[in-house]
Design brief:
With 170 residues, the chain is mostly helical. The chain is built from 5 helices and no strands. The radius of gyration is 21 Å and the shape is elongated.
Length: 170
């Protein structure tokens, strides 16, 4: 039995670490793009509802816009951000995804209600700023929970970056 030299073990560990970091940043970037789209839908939908047909109904407007944005985020994250981690049946991931997002929506809505009702931050600017802050707090929680509980399949490299090249490309 031959023992590999320490330099080859170190380079193997370095490559594995580099692959993990690469996957993390790729996931974070894709999560950000999907999140930005969902954020525009969420904030825009909230404003359309709260200052339109559901005028004055803060929590209802927030929950409806959040539910629509969550559906868009599910599709984007399932089909793009975390597609290389798909190890469960779609219905199981969807259930976990919507539970995590439901908790995030409760966090962001609770924050918005607290600032609106208890701190009396009721101007249009204050409502929108606090909506954004609540969404940001919930987003940090969701990204952690997606990686930890929802899209759990371990993969050291994204399929896009590790796909074999054809002999013509070599």
């Amino acid at each position: 039995m031959t023992v590999p030299p320490p330099t080859s073990m170190a380079s193997g560990l370095t490559e594995r670490l580099r692959g993990l970091v690469n996957v993390f940043w790729r996931e974070a970037a894709k999560f950000g793009v999907v999140g930005l789209i969902a954020f525009v839908i969420d904030l825009g939908g909230f404003n359309l509802l709260f200052y339109g047909p559901l005028e004055g109904r803060l929590a209802t407007s927030r929950l409806i816009s959040g539910a629509v944005a969550t559906t868009v985020a599910w599709i984007g994250n399932r089909l793009w951000t975390f597609r290389h981690r798909q190890k469960r049946a779609a219905h199981h991931e969807a259930l976990l995804f919507f539970v995590v997002n439901g908790l995030g929506l409760l966090v962001s809505t609770g924050y918005l209600n607290a600032t609106h009702d208890w701190l009396h931050m009721t101007s249009r600017l204050a409502v929108n700023v606090n909506t954004i802050i609540g969404i940001a707090i919930a987003t940090l929680m969701r990204f952690w929970a997606y990686r930890k509980f929802v899209f759990v399949g371990e993969n050291l490299g994204d399929q896009e970056s590790t796909a074999p090249t054809s002999s013509r490309d070599a």
